[in-house]
Design brief:
It is a single chain. This protein is mostly helical. It has one domain. The chain is 70% helix and 4% strand. The protein has a two-stranded antiparallel ribbon with strand order 1-4. A two-stranded antiparallel ribbon has the order 2-3. A hairpin with a 2-residue loop joins strand 2 and strand 3. The longest helix is centred in the first third of the chain and has 28 residues. It holds the Pfam family Caroten_synth.
């Protein structure tokens, strides 16, 4: 009897329940991205899924932060600075052409302020968090880690740009994605990545790598499948 009760207690430990929760959230993320690929690649469904794009990004961010542990003042500073710097750089980019080039946003990404969707600030925050998490425990030097995280973000942007243009998220002058866009992305990303490294908060997250992989696969497939 004692042995049976011990086995029962082991099976219902908080750790076991927690990891079941992780697996459930991973399934939700994968299903959500697969449905998104289907919706974006079927012409008759595309307009409806374009409208849902802001909710897709917000849901991904919420699911990720369910598993964030370090909710301290440093983390809130990171949230504010990453959103503010990312968003501010986009406002400057839209109105001056620096540092990314000449482009403008369409209506797909939702509510805009200063001609830039508010969701873009969330996008910067999410991508810095995901790419920074790759190196936070693997690379000790803050500047090297920030550079590597920024490089990952540039590679993601290479995948995102053609898809975003086809789906009317934004449009480039003369329909040409300039090299300055990727240089500017690296520069702004490096600043925020360095802030991410310097601020002291728990950077472990059981969903970050999985969500990053899903995002990369999502845009790889859309690049292949979108007409």
């Amino acid at each position: 009897m004692n042995s049976f009760m011990e086995n029962t207690n082991i099976q219902n430990t908080p750790t076991t329940v927690f990891f079941n929760k992780v697996n459930i959230f991973k399934i939700i993320i994968t299903v959500f991205h697969l449905v998104g690929i289907l919706g974006m690649t079927v012409p008759v469904l595309r307009p409806y899924f374009q409208i849902l794009t802001p909710f897709h990004l917000l849901l991904s961010t919420v699911l990720l932060f369910v598993f964030h542990k370090g909710w301290n003042s440093a983390f809130y500073i990171f949230l504010i600075l990453s959103f503010g710097i990312g968003y501010g750089s986009e406002v400057m980019g839209v109105h001056t052409g620096f540092p990314f080039g000449n482009y403008s946003y369409g209506p797909v990404l939702g509510v805009q302020l200063f001609e830039v969707p508010l969701l873009i600030g969330v996008n910067w925050l999410l991508l810095v968090y995901l790419s920074g998490a790759l190196f936070h425990s693997r690379v000790k030097n803050d500047y090297l880690a920030a550079g590597l995280g920024s490089l990952v973000m540039v590679l993601l942007d290479v995948l995102i740009e053609p898809v975003a243009v086809k789906l009317d998220f934004w449009a480039w002058e003369n329909d040409i994605i300039p090299l300055s866009n990727f240089i500017g992305w690296f520069g702004i990303a490096f600043i925020i990545q360095l802030i991410y490294r310097k601020l002291s908060f728990d950077k472990t997250n059981l969903l970050s790598l999985y969500l990053l992989i899903n995002l990369a696969v999502f845009f790889i497939l859309l690049n292949l499948l979108l007409e």
